[in-house]
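hey so i finally got around to running the thing on that chain from the lab meeting. sorry it took forever, my laptop kept dying and i had to restart like 3 times. anyway pasting the input first so we r on the same page abt which one it is
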Amino acid sequence: MKKFLGVLLISLLSACASQTTKPSAEVEDKSVGTAPAESGGGSAGTTTSPSLNPLTDPNNILSRRSVYFDFDSYVVKDEYRSLVVAHAQYLRDNSNARVLLQGNTDERGSREYNLALGQRRADAVKHAMTLSGARETQIESVSLGEEKPRATGHDESSWAENRRADIRYQGE
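ok and heres what got predicted. didnt touch it at all, straight out
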């Protein structure tokens, strides 16, 4: 039931998404929260400078590249939907752009379980992006499991930082 509601929410969000066609179009950040390790910074509604690449402009939502997950979950949380939709719109508007989605987990669980969970996380972001207009051929999803932690501690804040899917554009 949760999966169905998640897909329904993504579908509704993508139906409401704007239909811009410029790669450097303004993108509004309407996300509710921040990543576990982020500390405020940036404000909602900031726009991209025409001279900056929207993928690297720190004031653009497209510079954010991680979607965080709850423990033992691969459901894209509501607070990351606008991020996923923005990247999907960028892919839709830039047909030559390609991304690699890297699913990650914390250190708890077996290696096999974590590889499978990391793949489900990457695939969940891929599915959300395709529902929001990106072409499946532009997106590859892989699992890194617990092999590439961002935080090396053995506490909840480190584990929360490692439960993520990272968005990597080709050529970066």
